[in-house]
Each structure stands twice: as structure tokens, then as C-alpha cells.
Amino acid sequence: MGQISYEVAHLLGATMLMAGFGLLYQRRLYAVLNTFAFQALALAAAAAWQAHVQHAPHLYVTAGIALVFKGMLVPFALHWLVERLGIHRSVDTALSIGWTMIVGVVLVALSILLVLPVTANAAALTRESLAVAMSVVLLGMLMMITRRNAVTQVVGFMALENGLLLAAVSAKGMPLVVEISVAFSVLIAMTLFGIFFFRIRERFDTLDLQYLETYRGDRQ
Amino acid sequence: MILPGPDNPLFWILGIPLAAALLLAVLPWWRVAAWLNVAASGATFAAALPLFRARPEATQLFFIDDFNIYLVALTAFVGMTTAVFSAAYIARESAAARLGDGHLRFYHSMYQAFLFTMLLALVANNTGVMWVAVEAATLTTVLMVSLYRTREAIEAAWKYFILCSVGIGLALFGTTLVYLAAQPVMGGGADAMAWTLLVERAGAFQPDLLNLAFVFVLVGYGTKVGLAPLHAWLPDAHAEGPTPISAVLSGLLLNVALYALLRFKMIISANPNTLEPGPMMIVMGLSSLLLAGFMLYRRGDIKRLFAYSSIEHMGVITFAFGMGGALANFAGLMHMTMHSLTKSAIFFAVGVISQNAGTKNIADIRGLTASHPVLGWAFVVAVLAIAGLPPMGVFMSEFLVVASTFARQPLLAVPLVVGLLLAFGALLSRLQGMAFGEPRSSVVPHGTPSALSTILVHVPLWAHLALVVVAGLYLPEPLTRWFQTVARLLG
After folding, report:
1. Is residue B169, in this structure, part of any structural domain at all?
2. Mean pLDDT, rounded, for A209-213
3. Neighbour count for residue B355 (Cβ, 10 Å)
4. For chains A and B, what is the number of CB pairs under 8 angstroms?
5. pLDDT value at residue A206
């Protein structure tokens, strides 16, 4: 049982990590959304598996939220938004895809090198999951930095959050995981609402460093 | 987990703003809503006062100790005075047709929700509850920053949302790591997230894991404190939102984020084998101070100017807590309080000034002491106070920071003094143009103030200034003793 539970958790975490790389690799917006949905489904499976292994039924709620809200509702809503607002279907990159992937690999190596030594005393299950979770978080951040369109930035944030939830469900007996995932869901729902309401089609110039000096209330 | 009952002051401190937020969300008349907002904030402050007489016992969810009691009182107080100012501000914005009825209903409801989340973050005895509260505070303020629906406001809100979401995301990762460090020692469950228990047992936690956790917490909550280089959201969010929101953002939210950071610092310091958290905080504090000091010179927008001044002061405070020790901690605590009171007073004045001038552009604001003598002089006093001129309270606390640094690390005192002088020069040169000289003849103000709204602005403004001046001249004995207790607590 111990071996199997470890292998399955590892497999699901690795699936999320692969999806994290997949997000960086896509050039079309719809493919980004589909990859994100896949990552959310992997998170749901990982959370459900942890619920089973840790005998913590409340994690099934987290898994349910990941499955229904992030695996289904959010991708559908984003599809609808992209169509409705006529957002560009291609991904606007600040750094070429090749370089993004290389930086991504470096970040994964960094998180493994950082996490594995400091968690020497923790259970193997936690160690590996934590390293994977930190990699997913950093890849999400990388996506937010290198992709400038509002929708891809939100997807990057949600990928980052998937990594955070993976860390939280893997930490044995951590309370409030359900509350945290609800809080994140509210935040994401408000953002999607904001994109729709304010018709945020394209990127925001102020998030792009080269425009920082030219567009600000400070110009005289 | 047990929620506090009606005999517990925390029930009222948290319950009043929450109930008011729900009620204001459905109340259609904004004039009534503005007064209800004042009443609810006043009631919250009144509910916070009994804490000084008797403290409720710590539970798994909530606790009150020497440190957070004063921040709860300060938050409730500034929340109340800002609500009074907000009533005057909103009436004029509505008269100038800059805000519609629907927006105002939303605004008042969010104001109370924001107070609720900040108070919840302060009294939470659980790292997770505190995180959820800070996240909710971010959400409510993002919504309020975008209130004017202009392109700039939406951009500012988006930038704020993206940067602070990443920040609180990283803070959550740090929180999870602290839980992981605690779990082998304390067993799983809510105990391993309770501040009161974590600090007691921190000595046995694994130090490497705590180090890693603190880096994430520092970057995460540091983003919300507005520390350089993570400050980019702060000037925009302050400049584009309604001015009462700028006042509570600067005066309160930054303090709450710093409070979260300091709680984690207490855990790290309680473990003898961890890295010193001080140097990291000193570096971030100094870089914020110097960066803001230079940035202050090029500001053309009055609200942005004082937003950068907030970055400067949060830098000074973080520096002081990074230095640690009884005197520097004392100075940091005092500076937190003084900055809160002074900066919100400045934003009260700035709100009216920019409404009178019909612009936020510094170059178009001239001769305030001639055109509006009472307001103009209040503004002069407030800016002199924040620039750190004696005898005001900010001078006292800055002097203490500098003195304690000179005594222990003379080399660090050099950049500190340079940063303070830079900011001083920038603020004074800007103040001179705005306060003196010939007033502009062609001014299109936003609406005309009624007699009542003038009073509503001046009462909180002068109340804050009076407190700042008195604190600079004389700190009552119990207050000093109690600042010292907390300073020892912080290590």
C-alpha cells in the first residue's frame, strides 16, 4: 500500500508538472485553455488520491472544486470570453518559446535542489510532492511574466495556484485547505467577471516594462 | 473550532463590519449608506476599546496579545475617521456626477468588508485564517481601486491584482512550509497553524525548512507591504482609487501585511538554528527607502507623490524591525503608528485639495494657504510631519531608528540618513509650490462643498494631526511601557 500510494501521488504530480510545461509551449489560446483544464483535472485526481491515502474526507471537497470549477467551468468561461470579446487567438510572448522552456527546466532543477535537502526528515510522499508543487508554482509565475495577454496571465495565475493547492493537499493533515481553495475560486471568479465587465481584450501596457516610463499619470 | 460568543469583544469587532457590509450591499440610498458606514465604523472602534480592560482568552481561531491589540485599536480608529472623511468626499463626488448610485452602494459595502478582513487578519490565531483574510482584503481593495472605471483605474486595479495575487500565492506557499516544519513536532491539525503554539515550540522545528519558508513569506507579504522591488502596484493603486481608499490602503493595509510578516519573523527568531531574518529585511527596507527617495523627485501627481512616500516609510519601518533589539523595535512600532495617522491625514487633505483644484496634477495646484487657509495650513503641517520635521511624532520615531542604528551599525546609518534626507528634500520642494505662491485663477472644482462636508473633513484631519503632534512631544507612561513590552516580544 505504501509503495502504491507513493507511486500514484508521484505520477499525478508529474502529470501536473508536464501540463505546466505544456502551458508554456502552446502558441494558440484555445490550446492553452485545454492544457490548463488538463492540469486542473490532474490536480483533482491528486487531491482525491491524497484524501484516500490520508483518510481525510474534506480533501474530496477540494478535489471536487478543482474538478468542477477549474477543470470545467473556468475553461468553458474563458472559451466563451475569448469568443465573445474577440480576443486574439494566438499567444503574445515576451520571451521566445524555446527560451521559456529552458528557463522552465532551470526552475524545476532549482526547486528540486532547494526542497529535497531541506525536507530530509519529512515523509517521502511529502518531499517529492513539495518539490513538484514548487516547480508548478514557479512555472506558473514564469508564464505570468512571459505571456502578456490578460487571459494567458490569468491562466498563469491559476496554474501557480494549482501548484499551491498541490502543496497544501500533500501536507499531511493541513487544516483549512478547503477554505483556501474556496478563497482562490472566489478570486478567480471575480477576475473572470472583471475581464468580461471591463472588456479587457489585450495586454495592459503598464505590465510591460518597456511601457512603464511612457504611460503613467506622472507625465507632465 | 469555536466562534466567539456575544460576551466576547471579538464577536462585535468582527461581527459589526461583516453585518454592515451585508446590509450596505442591499441598501439603495447612498446618503443613508454613508452615515451607516460612519456609524458602523464608530461602533467597531467602540467595540475594540474593551479589549484594553480585559482580553478574551486565546482560542484556536482568534487571539489578542500585546502586539495585535494596538493594531486592532489603530485599525478601528483610522477606519472610523476615514469613514467620516469618506462621507464628505463621496457627497462631493456624487454631486460632481463622478460616481453613480450603484457604484456608491458597492463602495460602502466594500469599505466595511475591507475593515472586516483587516481586523480578521489581525486577530487570527491561525496562519491559514490570516492568509485567507489578507487575500480577501486584496480582493475588496482591487474592486475599490477600479471604482472610477477609467482606463487608468482599471489598469491600476489589474496591475494590483496580478502582482498581489502572485504575492499572496507565494505567502501561502511559505505558510504551507511553516506548517510542514511544525507538523512532525506538533502533530497535524489546527495546532500546527496556531501562532501562540508555533512560537512556543519553534525551537524544535527543522531550521532549513523555516529558512525556505521565510523567503517565500518575505517576498509574498513583502509585495503587499510595498517593499522594493515588489512595490510597482502601490503608486498606481493609491493614485487611481477614491481618496478614502488611498488613506486606508496606506494607513492600514500596509501595516496589516507587515504585521503578518513580523509574526512569521517571531517564529523564525524563536528557532536558534535558522538564518537571521534581520539582514534580508534590512536590505529590502533600505532599498525601498532609497528607491522611493529618488522617485519622489519626479512625481507629477499629488496622490502618487504620497504613495511613494508610503513606500519610503514602510522601508524605514521594515529596516527598524530588521535591526531588531528593544530600541529599534520600539521605534518601528511607533513609526508604524505615526505613519498610519499622518499619512491618512495627508490623504484626507489631498482628497479635498484635488477636488477643489479639479485635478491631481501638482503643477496645477498653487497657493493653497492663500486660497483655502485652514485646509492649506493643515496640509502644510501634515506634510512637514511626514517629512520628519520636529516636533511631530514621525520625527521622534525616525530619530530613534537613526540613533539605534548609529549605536549598533554606524555604516548602515549612512544610507538610512541619505534616504531620509532625500525624501525630506523632495517633499519640501513639492510642498513649497503647492502651499505658497499665487493661487490659480481658472479652477474648475469637482462639485462645491457644503458647510457640513467641510466640517466632516476637518474634524478627522485635525484629530489625526493633534495626535501626531502630541505623540511627538509627550508619550504617556503606560503607552511607552507597553510599546517596550511589545518591542521585547518581537525580539
Report:
1. no
2. 39
3. 24
4. 129
5. 37
Single-letter amino acid, residue B108: H
Task: Evaluate whether A156 touches A143 at the Cβ level (below 8 Å).
Answer: yes
- Residue A85, C-beta contacts closer than 8 angstroms, at least 6 positions apart: A195, A196, A199, A200, A201
Q: Which three cell numbers stand for residue B421?
A: 534626507
Answer whether B395 touches A (CB < 8 Å): no
Cα–Cα dist A215/B432, whole Å? 27
How far CA A140 is from CA of A21, A39, A203, B170, in Å, comes to: 9, 12, 18, 11
Q: Rounded to a whole number, what is the distance in Å from the CA of B470 to chain A's nearest CA?
A: 35
| B300: nearest CB among A172, A186, A220 | A220
Q: Is B447 helix (H, G, I), strand (E, B) or coil?
A: coil
Tell me which of B236 and B442 has the higher pLDDT.
B236
**Chain A within 8 Å of B489 (Cβ-Cβ)?**
no
The number of folded domains in chain A is: 1
Select the highest-mean-pLDDT range: A130-134, B40-44, B324-328: B40-44
Residue B88, pLDDT above cutoff 60: yes
Print the domain residue range for B293.
285-491
Q: Are B184 and A182 in contact (CB under 8 A)?
A: no
Q: Are B224 and B311 in contact (CB under 8 A)?
A: no
Q: Is there a domain that residue A220 lies in?
A: no
Give the pLDDT confidence score for residue A210 in this predicted structure: 38
Nearest CA in chain B to A192: B158
ipTM above 0.95, yes or no: no
Asked whether residue B152 is domain-assigned, the answer is: no
Tally the domains of chain B. 1
* Among the partner residues B165, B183, B298, nearest to A187 by beta-carbon distance: B165
Q: For residue A119, is it within any domain?
A: yes
B131-159 residue pLDDT tens: 999 999 999 999 899 888 888 888 888 88
Residue B470 belongs to a domain: yes
Residue A118 sits in which domain range? 2-214
Per-residue pLDDT, averaged over B208-212, amounts to 89
Show residues of chain B in contact with A190, CB under 8 Å.
139, 142-143
The model's confidence at residue B359, banded by pLDDT at 50, 70 and 90, is confident
pLDDT at B228 over 80: yes
Task: Give a yes or no: residue A77 inside a domain.
Answer: yes
Render B322-377 in DSSP notation, one character per residue.
HH-HHHHHHHHHHHHHHHHHHHHHHHHHHHHHHHHHT--BGGG---HHHHSHHHHH
pLDDT of amino acid A125: 65
Contact A119 B179 (CB under 8 A): no
Please answer yes or no on whether B180 and A122 come within 8 Å at the CB atom: yes
Q: Could A207 and B300 be called an inter-chain contact, meaning their C-beta atoms sit closer than 8 Å?
A: no
> What are the chain B neighbours of A119 within 8 Å (beta carbons)?
180, 206, 209
End-to-end CA distance of chain B: 30
**Confidence band of B208 (pLDDT split at 50, 70, 90):** confident
- B165·A157 Cβ contact <8 A: yes
CB contact under 8 A, A175 and B189: yes
State which residue of chain B sits closest to A187, comparing Cα positions. B139
Nearest residue to A87 via CA among A165, A181, A130, A150: A150
Gap from B412 CA to chain A (nearest CA, Å): 31
Nearest CB among B173, B360, B361 relative to A167 is that of B173
Residue A130 lies in a domain: yes
A123, pLDDT greater than 70: no
CB contact under 8 A, A206 and B300: no
